[in-house]
Amino acid sequence: EIVMTQSPATLSVSPGERATLSCRASQSVSSNLAWYQQKPGQAPRLLIYGASTRATGIPARFSGSGSGTEFTLTISSLQSEDFAVYYCQQYNNWPPETFGQGTKLEIK
Amino acid sequence: EVQLVESGGGLVKPGGSLRLSCAASGFTFSSYSMNWVRQAPGKGLEWVSSISSSSSYIYYADSVKGRFTISRDNAKNSLYLQMNSLRAEDTAVYYCAGDRGHFDYWGQGTLVTVSS
Predict the structure, then answer these.
(1) A92 φ/ψ sector (left φ>0, alpha ψ -120 to 50, else beta)
(2) Does residue A52 belong to the interface with chain B, where contact is any CB pair within 8 Å?
């Protein structure tokens, strides 16, 4: 089973600033990596797939990069609606499809 | 508009059973693999089970293998999860999700609480 590790667990950033979230896989997942956003009481929403492709309707301020075992989600200029929990997920070696433990992005 | 609507959650005693349903609309259900993903209170996301578009391939997490059964009815655009021998650690919100590797579509979830 591939273990996904996200860092940091909590990230405090001011609105308008850049946020950088990290995700590391225990072995290579190629570019088969997705990012999801989850707000309280809501289902997760797909942001990024293929490590760097934005899903339909996702604003350009969200970008993903990386391949192999190291991945990054960058939010270029934080808006109030971006404060949420973010999960990475690998779908290269499955089952099981595995998620990171999440990074909580909070307002500084 | 894509919609996935789960139902069937509730309070059940340890050792009991529940059947979850997920009604899909707004996309070609029969072309998608479907999954159940759960989230325990205050915790992260855990994949539970997957079924291919034609039901040819079915997979389970080790934590539910032998207790849960996933199925689908493409004629009814519906996904199911039969949960038996429920344990306290199965308490979670259960989401159905449509996937092409990554989970494109998610329902709003249904809460399953296992408690005496």
Answers:
(1) alpha
(2) no
